[in-house]
TrEMBL record:
Transmembrane segments: none annotated. Keywords: DNA damage, DNA repair, DNA-binding, Endonuclease, Glycosidase, Hydrolase, Lyase, Multifunctional enzyme, Nuclease. This is Endonuclease. It comes from the Bacteria. GO terms for molecular function: endonuclease activity. Pfam families: Fapy_DNA_glyco (PF01149), H2TH (PF06831). Belongs to the FPG family. PROSITE patterns: FPG_CAT. SUPFAM superfamilies: N-terminal domain of MutM-like DNA repair proteins, S13-like H2TH domain.
Length: 247
């Protein structure tokens, strides 16, 4: 599943489509009436967390890439039909695959809390702390994946952030010392921007410390692994030596 930083990169790559008119619409989605976009001018390209947003007059298209979604700009995947393809002048096109498409009516400001997006200029760490205070029994691993609190954080960021701050994924939010809770909130954003820079430089995997790894780089301890951890039931990698369990 593409995480928030990857969606920001897509937003940047697609930014120059804003102001262009959609001349062709096709795709195999049956959930929305894709003809609605035909002839409409794309006003803006936005993102919120893991949502990619194309803004048209009076409505927006939300693209969510789920677990296996992908996109191509000005090219197409071989042997794959796009879920949605938007064509513009001079042969330019946006193609989306294996994703969820949904229309959002009206003003996006009425739908999205921009202060909850860890990569947004409007990000508000105090608001994140207030939301976490209402979830004292939530596991740290689940809290980081809660898009209402940390929009854009995905499983890679979750595993790496918890290793950075030396917190076991099954620690309870209410048991974390105030300083540790602050570290969790701060690193959710900081690591997301590191992810963004590494992803753009095509070196992201080289910087994994625990995700998909077998040994802790800090102390050499074999890492623990669980295929389905917490309510989110996502993969978790952690070190029992340097990541403390707070309960």
């Amino acid at each position: 599943m593409p995480e928030g930083p990857s969606i920001v990169i897509l937003r940047e790559q697609a930014a120059d489509f804003a102001g262009r008119k959609v001349l062709r619409v096709e795709g195999n989605t049956r959930v929305i009436d894709i003809a609605r976009m035909q002839g409409k001018t794309l006003l803006a390209v936005c993102s919120w967390g893991k949502h990619f947003l194309l803004v048209f007059p009076g409505f927006a298209l939300r693209v969510h890439f789920l677990l296996f979604g992908s996109y191509r700009i000005d090219e197409r995947k071989e042997n794959a039909n796009p879920r949605l393809s938007l064509g513009f002048a001079k042969g330019r096109e946006l193609n989306f695959y294996a994703c969820s498409c949904k229309y959002i009516e009206g003003d996006l400001d009425d739908v999205y809390d921009w202060s909850g997006d860890v990569m947004a200029d409007a990000w508000n760490p105090r608001a994140a702390r207030r939301k976490l205070a209402l979830r004292p029994d939530t596991l740290a691993a689940d809290a980081l994946l809660d898009q209402d609190v940390f929009a854009g954080v995905g499983n890679i960021i979750k595993n790496e952030v918890l290793h950075r701050i030396r917190v076991h994924p099954e620690s309870e939010i209410g048991a974390l010392p105030s300083r540790k809770l602050g570290e969790l909130i701060r690193e959710a954003r900081d690591y997301s921007f590191d992810f963004y820079e590494w992803k753009k430089a095509f070196v992201l995997r080289k910087h994994y410390q625990v995700h998909t790894k077998k040994t802790c780089p800090r102390d050499g301890t074999p890492l623990s692994y669980r295929k389905h951890l917490g309510r989110a039931r996502r993969r978790a990698f952690w070190c029992d030596t340097c990541q403390r369990l707070y309960r």
